[in-house]
Specification:
Blueprint lengths: L2 E10 L2 E7 L1 H6 L5 E5 L7 E9 L4 E7 L3 H7 L6 E2 L1 E6 L10 E7 L1 H5 L1 H9 L3 E8 L8 H7 L2 E6 L6 E2 L2 H10 L6 E5 L2 H11 L6 E4 L15 E4 L2 E4 H4 L2 E3 L5 H8 L3 H10 L15
Amino acid sequence: MSYRIVHKEEVVPNVHKLVIEDPRIARTAQPGQFVLLMPTEEGERTPITLSDWDVERGTITLYVLEFGITSMKLANMTEGDTVFSLAGPLGLPTRVEQFGTVLLGGGCYGIGGILPVARAMKEAGNHVVVIIEARSNFLLYNKEELGSVADELHVTTTDGSEGTKGHNWDLIGELLDEGRTFDRAYFVGCTRMLMRCAEATRPAGIPTGVALNAIMVDGTGMCGCCRVTVGGKTRFVCVDGPEMDGHEVDWEELFNRKCSYRGDEARAYQTHTCRVTGARVKGSDS
């Protein structure tokens, strides 16, 4: 089967939106799930959160943060190109019910990943509050899309160029100090953001789900690369998640496992050479 890229754009620096043809995934996708994608036959499988899908067009939408070689290869693709392999939807869907008031948060690629969850929570009858964060206002995206779904959309920026100065977890603390109450929380983004947001909701006892982004290989629970300890028990992000209880995750273990290959990944990204043309590609140090 051919997985053709029908739309590709860099929405903000280093974050790329890809719309890819795959009617099978579009028909069965649910909020919170992900796909495993290989850009080329020689590449690696990388998990990417499903950010949207269109059943009629038979397409899925992904937001890719350019960080390593695989994401760099995806970033260098253009409309009309095809990816080598695409598997999904994988993982358990996000728990969606009529909770009451739901707090959702997203950062970097999670700004895209939180959209289908916000839509589903609203359709379930919840009052939906969304917080998105970025280092600066030029790194924010999807504000219009999220604003059309959420009852409240809040923005935080580290440099204070838009919205509240700080991070998602800073604003969560402010809202709770004001007396706001939430019946459920869910966050998508980098591991540090997930941990800090879970810490922010813990004192108020808000049930908090986090979409973990552990290292992953096969996506079936067989390789064990994505194992994480939650509530003292071993879980596998690919089949038991990606949503986990943010108040029960062993964050120190998760950080240590994610950092295992960081040095090798950085060196590979900086020195990667195209095997076909012999040219250095974007992301190299030349």
